[in-house]
Amino acid sequence: MATADRLPVYSSNATPEQRVARERWRQEQEHLIDVLIADQVPLQHASIRCGCNRMVTWREMHRCLYCGIWFCAECAQQHFGFRLPAVVNG
């Protein structure tokens, strides 16, 4: 997926259209989680799509307490503004 197709990681560098897209993306993620819960999908099999368009298992995702969007490890490091040590990052 091209970089231009990715959701912006920060709200501060997003255009108004991208902010709307981020909110829509958050709502779609929440809907997918609701469907997984309703279908009683076991957590070890549940996956969520990140803004970079990668499907990642639920346990490997990181949710921002402020914007509510789930991120894969790579996008989470950008969003939260720091890099995890190589030992933790795997």
Question: What descriptors fit this protein?
Answer:
single chain; 90 residues; two-stranded antiparallel sheet; 3 helices; 11% strand
3D architecture notes:
The protein is α+β, with helices and mostly antiparallel strands and 90 residues long. 39% of the residues lie in helices and 11% in strands. Strands 1-2 form a two-stranded antiparallel sheet. The protein has a two-stranded antiparallel sheet with strand order 3-4. Strand 1 (47-49) and strand 2 form a beta hairpin. The protein is globular, with a radius of gyration of 13 Å.
Secondary-structure map:
Layout: H1 16-38, E1 47-49, E2 55-57, E3 62-63, E4 70-71, H2 73-80, H3 86-89
Antiparallel strand pairs: 1-2, 3-4
Low-confidence stretches: none
Strand proportion: 5-15%
Distance between the termini: 23 Å
Helix-strand string: HEEEEHH
Judged by helices, strands and strand pairing, the structural class is: alpha+beta
- Regarding quaternary structure, what we see is single chain
* Percentage of residues in helical conformation: 25-40%
| Morphology call | globular
Cross-sheet strand order for the largest sheet: 1-2
Largest sheet: 2 strands, antiparallel
The radius of gyration computed from the alpha-carbon positions, rounded to a whole number of angstroms, is 13 Å
* Tally of individual helices: 3
The number of strands is 4
Give the overall pLDDT as a whole number: 77
